[in-house]
Amino acid sequence: MFNFTPLLGARTESAASQSLLELDGGIKILVDVGWDEAFNAQRLDALSEHVSTLSLILLTHPTVEHIGAYAHCCKHIPLFAKIPVYATTPVINLGVTLLTDLYASAPLAASVIPSSTIATNNASPADASTNLLLEPPTADDIATYFHLINPLKYSQPHQPTASSWSPPLNSLTITAYGAGHTLGGTIWHIQHGMESIVYAADWNQGRENLLPGAAFLSGGQEILEPLQRPTALICSANGVERNETLARKDRDAALISLVRETIAQGGKVLIPTDSSARMLEIAFLLNEAWRDGLGGPHADTYRPARVYMASKTAKTTVRYLQSMLEWVEESVRAEAEAAMTKSKGQGALRDPMDWRHVRALERKGQVDQVLGRDKPCVLLTSDKSLEWGFARQGLKAMAGESRNMVVLTEEVRTIDPRRKGVGRQLWEAWRGGQSGKASGVKVVDGNGVPIEWAENSTTALAGDELALWETYQARQRQLHSTLQGDNTMIDPTSGDLADKQAAGEDEAADASSDSEDEDEDTEHQGRALNLSAQLTQSHKRQKAAEALTEGELGVNVLLRSQNAVHDYEVRGKKGREKMFPFVAKKSREDIFGIVIRAEDFLRAEEKDDVMGEDLKDDRSTVGGKRKWSEAAGGRGGKGAQQGKSKRARVEDGGRGKKGGGHDDIDAAIARATGEGDKEDGEDDFDSESDYEPEDFGAAGPQKVVSTTQELQLHLRIAHIDFAGLCGMRALQMIVPLVRPKKVILTSGSESEVQALAEALRPGMADGTEILTPKDGEIVEAGGDSNAWSLKLSRQLVKRLTWQNVKGLGVVALTGRLGVDPTTTQSSAVDVKAETKEEDDTPKKKKARLVKEEAEPEQATKSSAKPDDAHTALPILDLPSSSSALASIQHTQPTRPVHVGDLRLASLRELLTSSGHTAVFAGEGTLLVNNVVIVRKAGGGNGRIEIECAVRGLDVAGRSPGGGMGDGGTFGAVKRAVYGGLAVVAGV
Predict the structure, then answer these.
(1) Rounded Cα–Cα distance for residues 944 and 569 (Å)
(2) 3.40.50.720, 3.30.379.10, 3.40.50.10890, 3.40.718.10: which CATH number matches 248-457+707-719?
(3) Tens digit of each residue's pLDDT (9 = 90 or more) over 236-273
């Protein structure tokens, strides 16, 4: 049995995807950590409730809908970063570039702190209604989180590792298969016991220019064998109501024709799409079109125009693609490998990975220069929702010119119930506008249609807002330490904190002693500054602990509560919440004497500076703020230059260079993308004008400020479907071929899910159930829906004869089923598991049975109550008499059963080692000594057939003449086959 619960995106307008699988034994698997462009942290509350019980996480696609909340959860949800995560290599690499671009471009991606959460005893929710932002993960944080993900390859079964608090996985196996739609997109096959689960969210069976198709079909019209007949097929319904779908070649031709017509008129084309996954497919197509167009009849049209891929991580995305050729479409990979391995004597071969006609833009200044020029261009930007990324900048600059065009690549959903979003408004303007045709595609003129344009910006906090933000952060840090068992967040008056302070002082002393050229004053100031920082931090922790409620403290309420609390409810708790929060005290003495606390020897003015709310602004005071040049003494020249900001260094004389040491990386990417080949006025962006500071690491806490204005649209709007998802027709053909026992539809709007369910029902086999749960609705989806539990009598257990099959014990039995009211469920022998471990030897089993028989009968009788009869499990016992046994055997005779699966390859090795000649004569056929044929029967039932290939052989396999050339072959093969199976006879 297993339960399925959609956490986000099921039968709603949200495009996010989060699903929870609960298997037998308490195993919980989270599939995808998606988000939507609203970036509302409250939508992740359902996920945060299950984090402490999750066993592992699986990721499917490198898109916002599938991994958008991964970095947010790792940073702000306790224990989330400690859960094992599995994904393919492209999902990991492209996920880094996607989230780095997201947090560098979208202020709202950090998520607004809910007013109800930030309110404290001194501040009401009305006072905390400002849009304070959580601390966003930095670029280093994102890289660290994705570095922890375990990479997998396609079609390789893997037994994952569970989290430290998870129950055993019991031979759980996960296998990744290609899903199409994105590079490295995954269909997950999860095998656990008798349950076979296929999770296929957002897949595309048809191959594209750069991306391969899904792996459901293995040549011809047969489904891949491991994916056949699963217990449940979990499938998304996104995009099944599309009516403007075209074949791949027609779709590509329509886009190229539409772009060519626009740039021929001197206009610009804006194509908002996914930041890294789907952008690669369109960029590959445009690069090929420009390469062919410059040598074709429309060369004059293509020559002055340029193709730009604009995102904060465009160059990194292209560089990752160069190293992931094994994941792209097979013909593209073969062509790229041939181009890389060509010899000098051969002619120039076409390299599909040479994107010399696509220029990467990563800075706002570069995009402004492109948009400010009176030259045609194609701007491929992030994101399709137009809520973040360079797509907003491009649309605002191009909206007033009727020659320009925006091409929507897929339908955009409503961002939030309170607002539609820019992308949704463009989609509705295209659907409701006057139809016009261009290159066979519907094109709508803007004609001054107004849309609501929301602009978000950030500003630093000050005053009461800063105090609220600091209080919230202190409460969250304390909550994290409480849940994760971090003993560093304890009462500052305890001895353990003193030990940590002393240890920190020793480390500071060791570090200062290593540098012999540093003078004594600098060393003293460094040690005192470290100490003051530790004391200040402990003072903040003490204030944070006082602000926590007893519910947030958990079991630590026994030690840290301000009130007298002497008891704590531990029933139903897990992990450290079940144990008393004992803190081990470190020894205050060692063989060298007593540890000295340096804070006991501080002067009075130093203590005031450290423990006070505000430090004095006197830079000469120990612990006060200092300049690097002042601390470095006579070395202020170099230190002052290093202490300046990045922008200051550039303005002081580094204008000709890029800060941060990016020259080598940019040059390498320029060579890989062909940017170094300037031709016909190729763009040359000045490093002075387009220099921008780093987007991450903004100064201090911030809040978001939103302004709304009206934007008039005069450009043209078109739509060409580049979503790369299976349509209704493909789903109706493939899903019945999979033959699932149950189909679960998720990740789609209400109308899409219902439409797909109605379309699949006529083609499914009888008995197949189609489930359409909503967010938070738990459905039982296991195939073991008619399982019953019973217990065996001790007399029957003694007569069982177990047969070993691949490490498991199997037995067949016949008995009489009855009810034993004198025994309860707790004293029963559970037979729900039909196998036993191999190491249960007869000696151990005998000892266990003797121990059970020696138990006092009074305990059994006392445990049984008059009202326990209905809770007692049925008991299977030996037939009461020989006549009853004969009656049972007469009505249902028991015959020996062969259990197991024999591999012909193993049989061939066994026969070869015995001196026979065994060769494969076809698929599933083995020929032994040119006499005996061993064949696996079709139908997938595992039946093995043994035939004689030579006429005239007797039953023993000997010829009438008594020759020994083939004598005994049939019998030897038969014995070898039976040796690989277990003969199970009834008792």
Answers:
(1) 60
(2) 3.40.50.10890
(3) 999 888 876 788 899 999 999 999 999 999 999 999 99
